[in-house]
Every structure is written in C-alpha cells, then in structure tokens.
C-alpha cells in the first residue's frame, strides 16, 4: 500500500488578493505532478527555491487546497478528509519561528500533545521520550528563545513526532543549520524510517542531503517533476557522460553558457566561481577557450563522479542553487 | 472520547495562551491601568456633562437615573463582549506574527476549539480586571447596583455571547486576508465601543449610527442586561426576543463566513497558507 498518492496535482495562486474590478494575475506554482510514496519509504522532493516543493507539502498536509488534481494520504482524500489526515501525519515547516519562543520545550510539546489529541495516559511519557530522543531533556524547562537554531530544529522534529504520525512531512529540515546539527538531523530522519518504520516525505535543495538520505527522489523544477528514481537510477542519466568541474576567477556572469554547465558555487570572498556540468573531451578545450575570452582565469579543471547536481544540470541547464 | 479530546485541546490552548500572556508581565499592569483610567475618565466626563450623578434625562432614556451605575454595567457587558472579538482576531494575528499559526492549523483540533481556548484565557483575564475595577468603582464612585440582579441577568449575557462569538468569527475571517491586521482590529474595537451603548444610551446617537448599533450584538445585549437588572425578565421580554434572534443570526453567519474565508484562504493561499 502507498502512504502518499498524488495524481496530476496543480496549484495556482493570484499574485494579489482578488477583488472586484481588480485584474487578477495568476502564478502557477505546481503544474500537475504525479508520484507515489510507499509505506516506510524516505522520499525526497529535490529542486531549487521556487520549484513548488513547499506548495506541494502544504497541499499534502491540507494547509492548501489544490486547484486541480487529487491526492490521498494513507487512503484519505486531502480535499474531503482533512481532519482524518491531520490526526495521522505531522509536519516540520521551513523556517525558525515555528514554535512558541516564550514557552519552554516541555510546554511547547504539551501544547502540541493536546491539539493532536495525545491520550492523557501517554502524554507525559511521550514528551519525556521525545525530548530525550532529540537530546533536549536536560534543557526541557528553558525557554525556546534561548535555544540555538539547531536545538530549535530538534524540538520542531520532536513536535512532529508528538502524535506518533504514520507519515512525516519535512520541509527543508536542515536549512540554515550548522554542519553538526545538519548531520544530527539527517541521521535522525534516517533512523525514523529504518527503526520506527515511518514514511517520510522531505523537500530539500541540498543535493547531498537528497543523495545520502532518500530511497527515491523526485526532481522538481518550475512546478513539474522532471525525473523520479532512486539516487543511483537518477545518476545513470549522466553516467556515460563526463562530469566536469571548473574553478575560475572572473568578474563576468557565467550563467546561461552555451554548454550544459551551471554555476554550482560562488565564493564571493575569494572571487572563485565553480562551474559544473557535462562536457565531452572534444568540447572541453572550446569551453575553456570561451571562458578565457570572457575574462575568466581558470584555476582548475577536474573530472568528477556524477552527482544529482549533474542530473539536474543535464535536465534543466541550470544548477540547483539558481 | 471525541468530546474529551476536544476539551483537553481547549484547555491546552487556554494554558498556552495564558503562559504566553504571563511572559509579558508588564502588559498585565498596563492593561489594568489603561482600562481603569479609560473608564474612570469616561465616568467623570459623563458626570461633568450631566452636572450631577442622577440625571432625569438619562432616566427618561434608559430607566436608569444614576449615570455611574448605568456606565459600569455597560462597561462590564462590553468588556465581556470585546473579549470574544479580541480573542478571535488576536488568536489569528498573534500566531501569525509569532509564525506559529501554520503548526496550529495543521493539527486536527477544531478551529472553534482553537479560538475558544484563546477566548477562555481572555475571559479569565477579563474577570480578573473586573474584580479589580468593580470594587474600585464602588469605593471611588459609590456605585450602587444589585449584584444579585446582575447574576440573574447572566443568562441574557450568555444569549448575547452567541452573537458575539459569531461576530468574532466573522472578524477573524477578515483578518486572514489582511496584510497588516493591527489597524483594522483597532478601528473595529473602537467602533464596537462607540456603538455598544456602554457609556451612553444609543438613542442619543445619529439615526444611521443607531441602526448600526442595533444590528451589532453588543448594544442589544447591554440593553437587555440593564433592563433585566433594573426591571426583571418580564418587562425585558421584547429586548430578549430581539437579542435571541440577533445572536442566532450572528452565530450562524459568523460561522459560515469564517468557514468560507478559511476555505478561500486555503484556495488562494493567503497569510500562513
């Protein structure tokens, strides 16, 4: 059985609140996506900012009504059975300010336990277990405003487990976290699937995160799923070709190159730009020559193992950071 | 089981709301002082204008000759009524500003329970304020009214409450659409205060405003409560019948308009949606 089934889901927003006599301009955030997530699977929606990932999560968690299409969570229809779905799922939303900063971690979880109908006999034990699980038990009475970004995110994850949900939606769960906190959160998410049998649907624009964590990944761009497979399956799309990484110094703009290359990193302090993409041996000297003509000072040209970034570049001609 | 869950959720929201309020300790002091000075000044202005405490004109218009008693009773009803309006709109706005609305709305708790949990805290606060104000008014202004009669009028107040909840829900529905709801709420609260008949009889208002006051649930509630306190249920039957009709209408329209607003917000993607 599938935990999440999505059929041709679409969402369009008006740019401004529709009022009488006001011409309404619409933005199509999600343009008809279809996918299924198996029970106990860790499924990723990978795409750049503005690709439609958060809108998709908001529709699946019943916060937004789809414009067209259908979706079922654990067999329940997102349009008709919102409350039944809400009882069985939970969400970690993007951003830092999602919890009550003027309450302690314990008080936050107690509040969410109540509004998620956690039975009284389980409430205390569940809160204690979760705070211990995310390593916040010793700081349970501290106000959340005094927590670090990483601690707040761990508490947000504990909150998302308060009703022991069957399906967990995580929107950019490591965004803005330091390296150590990111590692903790990623390992924790993997354990939730492997040891507790949870189904997880996460969104990310971090290619490494999707590659390391997810059983399957849907690459989403401009509101459409452009590829869906396991990380290895996706990488096969570029395996036969050469993934090249070029580091250079230059003041010009290196977006929209006439090759399938994209800027994947920009070190503004040192002025170093990293380009990545697929270029075969014959084309590589032409590319280098083109870059030099554009005023670039080449630092290094390296052949690399293909990654999901290369898949994205191949499919869209752009990097995930765009 | 469903009812118990909902009641526990209601209590959970109220406790959360109360704890957050307590974290702003200075607000409690400023709220108490503001309320007291506001009403105190209004009472003094009223006495100044009528020239004496017992006004024959007021007696003709309302059946009360003692302006202070008239105003304190109106203020108590208004304070209670505004609790619902403020409770509903601020429970959306506070959470929007804090960034927590999405998590609360993603939970299975019913919306009405969520709002009423916030209202419960405000009612409790309102009672605390009243328990401070009323003895002070009694001591300072020698207010005389029969508390037993006021308790007898409580069922009328509860009838009015249904309308006030409806009004609160409708306002919360509007707030979902506003980029900066603060000014809207301030204007709405001032309008309700002006048209509530709390500090003066609505019959002295211009005709258009009188109609507005009559179609909002606050003034009819104040009038019905005052009449029951002064003359008993029998003589207030007309006011009570109108209040029942108005309250049911507001409760129904408020609920439906909020449902519509929220559905619309979920469709066009406003605020936290």
From TrEMBL, chain B:
The chain crosses the membrane at residues 26-47, 67-93, 114-141, 153-177, 184-202, 240-258. GO terms for cellular component: membrane. Its main location: membrane. The keyword Thylakoid does not apply. GO terms for molecular function: ABC-type transporter activity. It is a multi-pass membrane protein. Keywords: Membrane, Transmembrane, Transmembrane helix. It is found in: Membrane. Coiled coil: none annotated. This is ABC transporter permease. InterPro entries: ABC2_TM (IPR013525), ABC2_TM_bact-type (IPR047817), Nod_factor_ABC_transporter (IPR051784). The lineage of its organism: Archaea, Methanobacteriati, Methanobacteriota, Thermococci, Thermococcales. Pfam families: ABC2_membrane. Residues 34-261 form the ABC transmembrane type-2 domain.
